[in-house]
Amino acid sequence: MTDFTEFDRYVESHVDLYLDRLKEILRIPSVAAQGTGLQEAADWVTHMAQEIGLQARQIAVEDSAPFVVAQGGEGERGLMIYNHYDVQPPDPLDEWKSPPFEPAIRDGHIYARGVADNKGNLVARLCAVEAYQQVIGPLPVRVQFIVEGEEEIGSKHIEAFAHAHSDLFQGMDGCLWEAGYRDESGRPVISLGLRGILAVELRARTANIDAHSGNGSLYPNAAWRLVEALSTLRTPDGEITIDGFMDYVRPPTPADLELLARIPYPDEQIRERLGIKSFLGGVTGQDALRQLLFRPSCTINGIWGGYTGPGTKTVIPKEATAKLDMRLIPDLTPDLAYELLCAHLKRRGFDDVEVVRAEVGEMPARTPPDSPFVAIAAKVVKEVAQAEPIIFPFMAGSGPMYPLCQAFGIPAASFGVGHAASQVHAPNENIRIEHFVDGIKMIGRFIAAMAELPKA
Amino acid sequence: MTDFTEFDRYVESHVDLYLDRLKEILRIPSVAAQGTGLQEAADWVTHMAQEIGLQARQIAVEDSAPFVVAQGGEGERGLMIYNHYDVQPPDPLDEWKSPPFEPAIRDGHIYARGVADNKGNLVARLCAVEAYQQVIGPLPVRVQFIVEGEEEIGSKHIEAFAHAHSDLFQGMDGCLWEAGYRDESGRPVISLGLRGILAVELRARTANIDAHSGNGSLYPNAAWRLVEALSTLRTPDGEITIDGFMDYVRPPTPADLELLARIPYPDEQIRERLGIKSFLGGVTGQDALRQLLFRPSCTINGIWGGYTGPGTKTVIPKEATAKLDMRLIPDLTPDLAYELLCAHLKRRGFDDVEVVRAEVGEMPARTPPDSPFVAIAAKVVKEVAQAEPIIFPFMAGSGPMYPLCQAFGIPAASFGVGHAASQVHAPNENIRIEHFVDGIKMIGRFIAAMAELPKA
After folding, report:
1. Which of A19, A76, B193, B301 has the smallest C-beta neighbourhood within 10 Å, fewest atoms?
2. Do residues B302 and B200 lie in contact, with contact meaning Cβ atoms separated by under 8 Å?
3. Does residue B123 surpass a pLDDT of 80?
4. Are strands B319-328 and B196-205 parallel, antiparallel or unpaired?
């Protein structure tokens, strides 16, 4: 087993260099939603990968921002590393204590847009690959970075990329996913998958014009139609009642349940903090966690129709709309969920309610918790963080895990340099410098452990 | 039986004078919502009533616009006449072909804000009282005008007025209500009552902050709670399912049904004009009319909550609100409907849905269609209009009929000088001059007929 004493010492003596590299990419305002700085950031990643001895190239698919593919090392095992160089928009700007694209160090933290999500992870991983080669020797596994520039706008070219370059995914034995964090108690979190998502608008339309409500006992009303359609989709306890929907939901396995039992879920504190009286169905404790992670959801994100101003307007709305998102548990795909929803409404005569699919949409993705790949992730994370990791079957966020990993049978695990107050997608995004350093140490160990990964 | 040949001739020879009077009051911008011109209009009514030989005075209640009470005549019978001198705001101004407070005559119509609703009626009635005395002799009944200045803002002082001056309502045998119109085919419409109204907001609140929809399978959602609460109030066919609600609804009497059978209801044309596929419950023809008039309604006027902008926002709304109005059939009062609604929601555990009552609220009011008072209204209207009147048990609009009439056991009937295209509450409000003249003739006859009204 490789000894990492020297490796750790090397990393610690190069922190200033690593932070300088991190600051360089943090200064590039690579906001995918605004189309700014993407080529510059891709170039930075490409050059940095080359500088640390990898073969790096940029691949564009259709009009996508460049994908950077960087490869190096030899060995029986292939380790894929997925990251992205684009970031969320920095708004609201006036809530930042230092400018979002001028990285600032305060109290052992580094602040900048994208430092946690996920340039800090990308740079830590690149630096780890370099340190490994400097201290320990040639990479004992085939390492392949895939770094995209459109993650924050839904990774909209990733399927086309994976389809056109499917050869890249052959011989890959696991994928380090983009990011991760320490929870409030300091325990590192490893996530093994993510739920899928389908977003739709339900648009009810019952007339050409708003009519006077004196006719309310006779005329159809779009707001009522919308309410009636919605009320067939879910019970008040949150159980989805779309015809056939639940048939596709795989219940948690014994390994999942074992995992769940080890995840702390401070349900009372959460309810108190949010001002929530009780969770759906009144569940508490681990039951709440299980419901959160293993039950699909159907959420009304917004609803509107008719008169919404002050006072009273005696009107029958001709139109009403609801935005919904559904979190999908395997094997529910967005296509399937959409078809089931449409068929369900049609079967009930809701011809006056149109179902319009939003651009947002993602496949659910899972890695079995008893996968050996997960075991090595847990081992190296625990060793560096000196704390038992918490392993989540699904992470809170979203991302293109399925088309890059599960579609090719590649297990995935996500951990990284963030912490519970990293302010991801919010002003004053930050990481702790010690976690950044730990992140480098973890990846060094991961590379070594990956070479030992038993064949299934 | 009084002969009206001479009366009609007198009226026709004084049309210019009557129109000049009408124009005078139309020039006063007595917009209750804006508080303008109310005293001036009250003064005009008071002076005109005095000029035609009535005893007139102004009565204010609290900070109300003045009520004008004008009395004259002697006899066994008392005839109350209810009108209002205030009008709706004239907006949108740019859609008026002539300024709203500069009465203009075009093609036999007179255009101005309030000419149909209801200064044209008020002036026609005053002129009729004068002509009666000039041509036929002293008024054979006790005539009492009650003219208010806050009808368009909900007659908010009328209950206090009626309570403080209940003596005015003793010995009154019927009330001519404010207005009426000819339908598209030219048939005069008489209305005998109006449905009550309760307006509320349902406000659901489930948390202190909007949460991320990744928690949608666990966290409560205000939009869902609102949908769930609403869906207990009504069936998709529009039948109200609020506990106990329907117990208070009096079914139509045989006299009502006879009335209904005589009301034309062009249901196909209405659906086509509004782009409505079918009415609630699929009813057609006279069934539709019966459902329209004799079934209480619960209408969502507006609904909103959460994210309503473009694109997707994966959020769980903490708050959601719906505005509702309910049309109430006797014996459902607004107080009762409100109590039943609150109890219904409470019984189902909707403690997180607040029911906030709006200022709008009115008692339902009915006059039995077989009342002798209705018979004389039908007789004089038919005689002058030379067409069979259509008698509606409930009018489309609203007004303070209950506190002025039914609360004192006084039957009421409403007819007047408008027509189907009078543009009430809209730009280019107008009446036909011939209908204005007919209105004067009808009231002359009504006064005479009232003296003959058999005692019950």
Report:
1. A76
2. no
3. yes
4. antiparallel
Closest chain B residue to A287, measured at CA: B218
Q: Got the DSSP string for B288-352?
A: HHHHHHHS-EEEEEEEEEE--SSS---EE-SEEEEEEEEEE-TT--HHHHHHHHHHHHHHTT-TT
Residue A348: DSSP 8-state: T
Question: Strand locations in B60-208, DSSP E?
Answer: 67-72, 78-84, 104-106, 109-111, 142-148, 174-177, 181-182, 189-191, 196-205
Element housing B136 (H / E): none
CA gap B235, A202 in Å, rounded:
20
Q: Which tokens in the block code for residue A186?
A: 């300091």
Question: Would you say B54 and B128 are in contact if contact means Cβ atoms under 8 Å apart?
Answer: no
pLDDT confidence bin for A312, thresholds 50/70/90:
confident
Q: Among A303, A316, A328, which would you mutate to test the B interface (most chain B Cβ atoms within 10 Å of its Cβ)?
A: A303
Strand order in the sheet with A104-106: A104-106, A109-111, A430-432
* pLDDT for B397: 72
Separation of alpha carbons B79 and B145, rounded Å = 8
pLDDT the model gives residue A369? 93
**What's the pLDDT score for residue A426?**
86
Rg of chain B on CA atoms, in Å: 24
Q: Do A313 and B302 touch (CB under 8 A)?
A: yes
Q: Are B31 and B87 in contact (CB under 8 A)?
A: yes
For residues B396 and B408, is the Cβ–Cβ distance under 8 A? no
Distance CA A442, CA A355 (A): 46
In this prediction the ipTM stands at 0.87
Query: What are the pLDDT digits (tens) for A336-385?
Result: 999 999 999 999 999 999 999 997 788 999 999 999 999 999 999 999 99
Q: What is the rounded CA–CA span in Å between residue A436 and residue A385?
A: 11
pLDDT score of A184: 85
For residue A188, give the 3-state DSSP assignment: strand
Provide the pairing of β-strand A297-306 with A319-328.
Answer: antiparallel
Q: How far apart are CA A45 and CA A30, in angstroms?
A: 12
Among chain A residues, the shortest Cα distance to B317 is held by: A301
pLDDT higher than threshold 90 for residue B153: no
Strands B418-419 and B181-182: parallel
- Domains (range + CATH), chain A: 5-194+365-451 (3.40.630.10), 196-249+295-362 (3.30.70.360)
In the predicted model, what is the mean pLDDT of residues B335-355?
A: 97
Provide, rounded to the nearest whole percent, the portion of chain B with pLDDT above 90. 88
The whole-angstrom distance between B303's CA and the closest CA on chain A is: 5
Q: Which pLDDT tens digit goes with each residue over B79-107?
A: 999 999 999 999 889 999 999 999 999 99
pLDDT band for position A170 (cuts 50, 70, 90):
very high
C-alpha to C-alpha distance for A265 and A255, rounded to whole angstroms: 18
Nearest CB to B221; choose among A215, A216, A299: A299
AA identity, residue A201: E
**pLDDT surpasses 90 at B299:** yes
- Chain B residues with CB under 8 Å of A229 CB are none
Q: Which residues of B60-90 are buried (b: 16+ CB within 10 A; e: fewer)?
A: ebeebbbbbbbbbbeeebbbbbbbbbbbbbb
* Inter-chain residue contact A300 with B297, CB threshold 8 Å: no
Looking up tokens 């205000």 gives: B222
Tell me which residue in A209, A296, A308 faces B302 most closely, judged by beta carbons: A308
A424 Cα to chain B: minimum distance (Å): 13
Helices A267-274 & A285-294 angle (0-180, nearest 10): 70
Q: Tell me how far apart the alpha carbons of residues A41 and A58 are, in angstroms, rounded to a whole number.
A: 11
Query: What's the rounded mean pLDDT across residues B113-134?
Result: 97
